[in-house]
Each structure stands twice: as C-alpha cells, then as structure tokens.
Design brief:
CATH topology of the largest domain: Alpha-Beta Plaits
Helix content: 10-25%
Distance between the termini: 53 Å
Largest sheet: 10 strands, mixed
CATH class of the largest domain: Alpha Beta
Radius of gyration: 30 Å
Strand content: 25-35%
Number of domains: 3
Structural class: alpha+beta
Length: about 375
C-alpha cells in the first residue's frame, strides 16, 4: 500500500503505522495542505479579541474546506473504527485546551459566554460574546404600543412624514425594554420573545406578560437587575419586573406554553346596556366558542375554525349604557370578536346573547396564569 504524505499534526491523529509518511513540507499534506500551520497565529488572534469583552466560559468551533474532509475520509475508509481522530475533533480539542491554559477560563460547548470560531479555509479567527437572555414580565401601561418593532409601511423604517420620522408605525415594548437593557449589558441589539401578545390598543396589567429579552453581542454579562427594574419604574408606558438571567432554552418554555388569561373590557352597544343584560351574560360561563380566524387578521393568518373556552364571565352596568366585563378565557381566545361576534364568525358572542350589536370600547389583560414557568428547571 502506497504511503500517504501527511504533516506531523495530521499524522499524529492516525493510530496505526505503515500507511502515512511525513510530508516534505506542510503544503504537501494530503489532508490539510499546510492549513494547520496557522494554528498558533489564529489562536493568538482569537484570544486577543476576547479581551475586549467579559466572559467566563467559552465554546470552540472550527471549519475546513470540503476537500480536506473528503481526503481525510478517503484515508479513513482503509481503517477500522477507532484508529483515528477526525481533523475537526482533534483541532477543537487542542484549541479548547490551549484557550483554557492561556486564559484560565472553562470550556462549555452548550452554555458558553464566548464563542471562538476558527476558519482554516480563510485563515481567520473570531472571538465574540454569545447572546445573553434576560427573563421577566412586562407591563404595558399605555395603549397604542405594539409588542415588537413594527416598521412604518410607508418608508420601511427609514423615517418619513407618515411616521413623523420615527420609522415605526407605533412605539414598541421591545424598544422600551431594549433602551434599558442594552446599555446595561453594552449590547448591540435586543429581541423580545414573549408568551403571546396583546393588540396595539390593549394594555397588559397585573403581574405582566412573561418574556425573554435576547441581547446580541453583550460586552458585559452581569448587571444590577434590581437597579434596572427601578429604572423601568420611571417609564410611564412600559415596565419590566422580576428580571433574571436565563439560558436560551427558556425561550421555548415562555413562547410555547399556553396560559389562561383574565381580561377586563368596557362594552357598549347600539342600545343602552342594563343590569339585566349584565346578569344574562353570566350564562356564557363555561361556554366553548367556535371562532373563525378574525377578519382583521385574515390577510396574514390561515382562515380556520378554533374552539376556545370562556371559563368564567361576569358583568356589571357602569352607567352611560355600558357594561364592564370581567372574564377568564383559554389561551388563544379572541376577546374582541367574542364581544362583537365578527359578523357571526364567533359563536356565541356577547352580541348574539344580548341580541344587539355590541362593541369593545377598551380591553385590558389583567392577569396571565403562567405559574408553570416558576416550576421550570433550567
């Protein structure tokens, strides 16, 4: 069998004699073509970059051209399993060992503070902070605030007369939270992940809605969270409470869990509503609604039938021919449509029960029963 020319770094990964011979020089290596000669310089570059931000744990990743991996596989087909280590695994292990030795920090491939990436194809190394995740509950105290950034439909975020130069259709909870968290952690961006959302004109009160704020490129990884909550107290529109650092996996717990919600609504109609009407609405407690996708969102959501339960409802006349509604409903219930019926697309409804054309004058989320999140072990 003809011996294969390999550099010292590649040859040491094959635990068998007789199939390799030293390459005349690094460039003559059948696998890496001399790319591994840049190991020390790339390592030095990455460690130097990592001094620009705070971190305690790190992950390592390396990449090689496809030809190197294919050439390695060609050799591997001649061998029994377990008699060689792949170039990626070997390189990553050695990089992790050297970084730990040089910095005194710990390798953690799953939950690292810093990401070290080595591209041996382009001869480049990058060290950067990984995303940071802050969990909490937000309160939306003002109407006409959307949850996530909503760029102006006229200028697509550039700023115009229609949006008064803001680039947004509405101010957002996401931006208000980012204004506090980004400077605290010296992050470049903030993305909000929340458990559902309320409409632009709906407030979220009580203990708030659970969220995870994902901070991109944070140069710091610690902050006084109580002080940040105090900073939010100064905001008349959006507040955040119960802040704590979590892992990325917590986003799934927050966003993919479904929680019952309590609401309060002010309802008017095409006739004065009375105490007798309020009493009649109690009969809707425990009712399962049939709700077609609301007309107002049909342009962006599939038209389908959903069944949702209103567990409890009570009402009281408040004067002016209006009712104050308090109700507990299943996650995903369209409350406005439950009130006005959406031209019969929600059955039953407040309108159908009272034989009138009811409408929702205002709506608030007053409680989200998200107790489950307190039991989640990260």
């Amino acid at each position: 069998m003809e011996k294969i020319p390999l550099c010292n770094e590649c040859a040491r990964r094959f635990f068998i004699e007789g199939i390799v011979r030293p390459a005349d020089r690094g460039e003559g290596c059948f696998i890496c073509s001399g790319m591994l000669a840049a190991f020390s310089s790339l390592l030095e570059s990455a460690i130097s970059q990592s001094k620009n931000f705070k971190w305690e744990t790190f992950s390592v990743a390396s990449s090689f051209p496809r030809t190197a991996l294919m050439n390695e596989a060609e050799i591997a087909t001649r061998l029994l399993p377990g008699v060689y280590t792949s170039i990626k695994n070997s390189t990553n292990a050695k990089l992790a060992e050297e970084i730990a030795k040089a910095t005194g920090k710990k390798n953690d491939q799953r939950g690292a503070d810093a990401s070290f990436e080595f591209n041996f194809s382009s001869n480049k190394a990058i060290a950067r902070p990984t995303q940071l995740y802050v969990y909490g509950h937000y309160l939306k105290l003002a109407r006409n605030f959307c949850q996530s950034r909503w760029h102006c439909s006229e200028c697509n975020g550039k700023g115009c007369d229609s949006c008064h130069g803001s680039g947004m259709n509405y101010p957002s909870v996401e931006d208000e939270i980012g204004k506090v968290l980004m400077p605290a952690f010296k992050a470049k961006d903030c993305t909000l992940h929340a458990s559902g959302r309320e409409d632009v004109d709906v407030r979220c009160l009580g203990a708030g809605r659970p969220f995870v704020a994902e901070l991109a490129t944070p140069m710091k990884r610690t902050a006084d969270l109580q002080a940040l909550e105090a900073e939010f107290e100064k905001n008349e529109n959006v507040r955040a409470i119960g802040l704590r650092l979590v892992r990325k996996s917590f986003i799934d717990s927050v966003c993919n869990s479904h929680f019952e919600k309590e609401y309060e609504a002010i309802v008017s109609a095409d006739r004065p509503l009375t105490a007798a009407d309020a009493k009649k609405l109690a009969s809707l407690s425990g009712t399962t609604l049939e709700q077609h996708t609301p007309q107002r969102v049909l342009s962006r959501r599939t038209d389908m039938l959903r069944k949702r339960t209103v567990y409890k409802i009570s009402a009281q006349a408040i004067g002016g021919g209006k009712l104050k509604l308090s109700l507990l409903a299943e996650a995903g219930t369209y409350i406005k449509e439950f009130i006005h019926s959406d031209a019969g697309r929600t059955k039953p409804s407040v309108s159908s029960t009272l034989s009138c054309l009811a409408q929702c004058d205002s709506l608030d989320v007053v409680a989200i029963r998200d107790y489950f999140l307190e039991t989640v072990k990260e």
